[in-house]
């Protein structure tokens, strides 16, 4: 498999693992980018972007990075907080008065960012294409009753996060989420990174390849097992009441790519992810150093997420390193970072993060999804190679430390 791009000789192990992903781990098309001290030390891509047409993964190939989008949305909120325009510790109703309905007047902005607001899904069936109408989704969520007392439980807002946080950003920042991100992040940093992809870039998108279904008797993520086993469960509503968005192939539609979905809709590549986190790895840039510290600090943690049913740890809007290796099957996928790092993974294995201590930013994107909801062996192997090169060691089965 031909690998293209650049790799500093000191980080040769990263290129070795990238090549092994194709040779041994089933990678189809992918990109990885690493910056240290603000300098790009790895920028590699290779494989096939579209197995149907045989199109190669090129330098400018972009793709769907799923929940890595949440990191971009959270960054927008922290930019407003850093400027003093948004207080993360006040009720959402200060900025979004209609949100007070059904007992939500005490929900804080920080609850939206830490998945503790109790709004991971909607109870009433959504019409086809509902996720492509941001205003309608915000209105539906404003009128929804929480599934638990806000602040008392943590449950991954897998698909609602972007409408909740995005509407606060729109109210405070005066622009839609996609426009705010373009104006304040992607544009100034020169990133090929979109929340709401323009038509002119559609031909460069690598279609998503879903993970193969589990073999008979093989374990599946507990989220799916709970959803299929109890149609009335929160898990079933999270993945089943999406207006058709999770129907196979729908996420690759033009309507999906064009929509401003701040939880799952971003289109970029490893270079875009690493580029977004680069200034944060250097201590700020887009936000103040004090705000960067807030972004990196654990704000919520649980041994059993109310939606995912696995341990999770969160900063405000960002994933913190989590070791779930003691679990079975796809649930064992965690995100094995250092304790100082923060970022976000995407369904199937994409990842972007910043680690301010080694001044590291990292981005990985691919088209073939893995079976779990965390980072699978392909992305983890690349991260591990970076951390080893930087002199980090790994606790038994767990996170990296100096």
UniProtKB/TrEMBL annotation:
Domain of life, per lineage: Bacteria
Which keywords fit this entry according to its UniProt record?
A: Hydrolase
The UniProt entry, under InterPro entries, shows:
Beta-lactam-related, Beta-lactam/transpept-like, Beta-lactamase/esterase
Pfam families recorded for this chain?
Beta-lactamase
Q: Which residues form the Beta-lactamase-related domain?
A: 18-375
Q: A single GO molecular function, which one?
A: hydrolase activity
Specify the protein name. Answer: Class A beta-lactamase-related serine hydrolase
Q: Which organism is this protein's natural source?
A: Sphaerisporangium album
Its taxonomic placement starts with: Bacteria, Bacillati, Actinomycetota, Actinomycetes, Streptosporangiales
């Amino acid at each position: 498999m031909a690998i293209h791009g650049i790799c500093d000789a000191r980080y040769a192990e990263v290129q070795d693992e990238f090549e092994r992903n194709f040779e041994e781990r089933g990678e189809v098309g992918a990109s990885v980018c690493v910056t240290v001290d603000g300098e790009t030390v790895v920028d590699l891509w290779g494989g096939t972007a579209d197995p149907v047409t045989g199109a190669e993964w090129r330098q400018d190939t972009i793709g769907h990075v799923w929940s890595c989008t949440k990191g971009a949305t959270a960054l927008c909120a922290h930019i407003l907080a850093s400027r003093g325009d948004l207080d993360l510790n006040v009720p959402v109703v200060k900025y979004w008065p209609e949100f007070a309905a059904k007992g939500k007047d005490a929900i804080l902005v920080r609850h939206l960012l830490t998945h503790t607001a109790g709004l991971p899904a909607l109870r009433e069936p959504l019409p086809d294409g509902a996720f492509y109408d941001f205003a309608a989704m915000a209105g539906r969520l404003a009128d929804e009753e929480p599934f638990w007392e806000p602040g008392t439980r943590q449950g991954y807002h897998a698909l609602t996060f972007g409408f909740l946080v995005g509407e606060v950003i729109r109210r405070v920042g005066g622009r839609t989420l996609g426009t705010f991100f373009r104006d304040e992040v992607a544009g100034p940093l020169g990133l090929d990174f979109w929340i709401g992809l323009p038509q002119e870039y559609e031909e460069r998108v690598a279609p998503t390849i879903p993970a193969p279904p589990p073999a008979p008797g093989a374990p599946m993520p507990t989220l799916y097992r709970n959803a299929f086993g109890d149609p009335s469960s929160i898990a079933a509503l999270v993945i089943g009441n999406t207006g058709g968005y999770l129907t196979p192939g729908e996420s690759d539609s033009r309507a999906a790519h064009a929509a401003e979905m701040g939880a799952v809709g971003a289109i970029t590549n490893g270079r875009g992810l690493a580029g977004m986190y680069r200034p944060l790895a250097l201590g700020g840039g887009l936000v103040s150093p004090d705000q960067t510290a807030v972004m990196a600090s654990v704000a919520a943690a649980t041994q059993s997420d109310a939606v995912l049913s696995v341990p999770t740890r969160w900063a405000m809007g960002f994933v913190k390193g989590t070791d779930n290796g003691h679990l079975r099957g796809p649930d064992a996928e965690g995100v094995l970072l250092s304790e100082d790092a923060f970022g976000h993974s995407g369904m199937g294995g994409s990842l972007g993060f910043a680690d301010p201590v080694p001044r590291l930013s990292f981005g990985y994107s691919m088209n073939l999804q893995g079976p779990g909801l965390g980072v699978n062996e392909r992305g983890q192997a690349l991260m591990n190679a970076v951390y080893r090169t930087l002199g980090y060691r790994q606790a038994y089965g767990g996170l990296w430390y100096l």
